[in-house]
Structure formats: C-alpha cells, structure tokens
Amino acid sequence: MPCAISDPSLLIPSVQATYPLGREYKGVFHQSKRCPCCAYIRFDDPPSDVLDHFYNVEYPEVSKTWYNVEGDYNASKTHERSRRVVDILNAFGIAPDAHVHEFGCAFGGTVQALKDLGYKASGTELNRTAVEQGRARGNLDIHARPAQEFLAEQPDECSAVYSYHALEHFTDPFAFLRELRQVISPDGLVISFLPNSAALFPLVYGHSHYIWYGYPEHVHLFSPGSAQALASTCGYELLYVTTAPIDIDQSGPISRALKQDTLSAQYLRNEPMDRYGEELVIVMTPAGSKLLERHQDMHLKAWEYSRIQSRRERFLMDQLATFAPNPWLE
Ligand SMILES: [Zn+2]
C-alpha cells in the first residue's frame, strides 16, 4: 500500500488508546491524521494568522532559554552540529570548500562554524530578529529570506542543503522540497535532521506524551518508514536514513519503555534500538543525480531500511490505537 505522503487521500484520523489523538491549542482540539502504513503523522494546516502570531509572539517567549544568539553560537553546539553535517558531506564526496546552505538557520551559529571550517556556507531564516542578531555578530552570510529565492540568485551552485528541525514546521514541506530541487546542484544533497515520530518513547506510550508532537509548530512528523515516500514524492532518491538518540528530558520513561507488559514493548525488545532514536536523519539527492550511481549500495540499503521500518511502524501504530501504558508509572 502506498504511503499517505504520496497520496494524502489515504490519511486516517489518528486514534491512540481508543481516544482521538491531538493537541489542544487556544481552547480548540486539533486531531492529527496518520498514514495507515507507517508512522507519518500530520496536523491540518494551521491558518497563517495563527502561525504568524505563534512564531512572532509566543515562540520567542517560551523558547528564550534555548533560542537565543549566545546559545546558537555556543561552541559545543556548533561543533556538534557542524561535525554531523561534515561527516555526511565527506561520506558523499562533497568538497571541503563547497557551497553549503542551511535553511531555518536561526541566528546562524552552525553556518559560521562551517565557514570557519572552510566551506562557503550561507543560511536563510524567516525570523528577522534572529537574522539581525546573527548579522550584528558579524555573520553576514545569513539572510531573512526564503531559501529557494536566495539560492536561485547565487552564482555558485549549492552542493548541499541541510536543516536542523525545520522541515516539520512547514505547512507544505513537499512543495518546498520540490522547489529546492530546482535551485541546488542536480548532484547535490538535502540533509534533514527531524523529530522522529517512530521513536521508542511515542511507540510505547503514545504520541500525546511526546514533547515533539505539537500543534501548531510541528505540522508534519516523519519517520524512517516514511523517508522513502518523502524522497520519491518530492523528486529525490534516498541515500541514507538513520536515527539518533537525543536528550529530550524523557529519559526516565525511556529507560522503562522496554519493560512494559505490552505487545509493542515485547516486539521492540527484539529490535535494534538504533532504529528508534528520537532524532531522524534523512539524506537525499535529486532523482537522476550522479551520486545515485556512485553510492548505489547506500541507496539500496536506505530504501530497504525504510521499507522494513514502515511495516514495523504500521504494526506498532496499530497497537497504539487500542492501548498505551502511562509513561510516568514506575
Ligand atoms: Zn506512510
């Protein structure tokens, strides 16, 4: 059965532990929808005035402790983030002086770190205040513009585009990825770090307790099992998919997840845990790219990995429809 990413008419209302799964926002309950074949979950598009208010007023207020210019240029953060990007660039032979671009770059800390490493790095971000603060710090390669518009005007072809937790915020990430494909190198990379909707925690306890399941900010939640559909729907081929553990302040329940007396927990006890980390990493290249031939093994491995995970995700999501244990019970 095809994925609902390719055919949105397949989306079904999400139900977990017999209740409609959703988030309440300003007194209104928003039930999400899911793919019947994998762990892809989405909310209906929030109205643009709701999003404007959320990102300009609410988000800066609640995120002050981690979303600020000093934090964004903190060496341990930029070192870790740039290293993860560079590892992927190296694996696919992208030259160390190539033009790489970050969309949703916030204050530009990681862009600066890549510039310091010798890359011709640039960034775009729709939050004007963040860009102004980054530029005031001397990072003039970040711009408050849509990425596809900026990249279309650049004389140097862009070899790789990366983003940290940005794509899930788009109401139409598919249209964006299609436009992006037109303005990067035909042999380029798109590297996405995203919340994983098929992480151990939500698969055992349900998404209502998962901090990355949120309205109106996380409109689309992807998974390893939906990565293949995401790539093909947007005109790309999958090169690599993996998940990584990340500290999301739910470590107590995570450590108890596999001890739960449920079918899902029993099933997951026999699974390799590196497939169920909280962070999803997807690397793709435009369809027809030379990288595909050069990295045929990785492509086939990623394709197969996504195919197998989608079956597992389907089983686990179906289990969740009827029962989910309380994560806070010891
Ligand atoms: Zn799917």
Distance between the termini: 39 Å
What is the CATH H-level superfamily? Vaccinia Virus protein VP39
Q: Mind telling me the CATH class?
A: Alpha Beta
Strand order of the largest sheet: 10-9-8-11-12-15-14
Overall geometry: globular
Number of domains: 1
Distinct small-molecule ligands in the complex: zinc ion
Low-confidence stretches: none
Structural class: alpha/beta
Rg over C-alpha atoms, rounded to the nearest angstrom: 19 Å
* SSE pattern: EEEEEEEHHHEHEHEHEHEHEHEHHEHH
Helices, by number, come to 13
Helix content: 40-55%
Indicate the CATH architecture: 3-Layer(aba) Sandwich
Strand percent estimate:
15-25%
Fold-level CATH name: Rossmann fold
Tell me, rounded to a whole number, the average pLDDT: 96
Largest sheet geometry: 7 strands, mixed
Kindly state the number of beta strands: 15
Write the layout of secondary structure elements.
Elements: E1 12-13, E2 15-16, E3 19-20, E4 22-25, E5 28-31, E6 33-34, E7 41-42, H1 48-62, H2 69-72, H3 75-91, E8 99-103, H4 109-116, E9 120-124, H5 128-136, E10 142-143, H6 147-152, E11 160-164, H7 173-183, E12 189-195, H8 200-205, E13 220-221, H9 224-233, E14 236-244, H10 251-257, H11 263-269, E15 279-286, H12 290-294, H13 296-322
Helix pairs in contact: 3-4, 9-13
Zinc ion is lined by residues 3-5, 35, 37-38, 40, 226, 229.
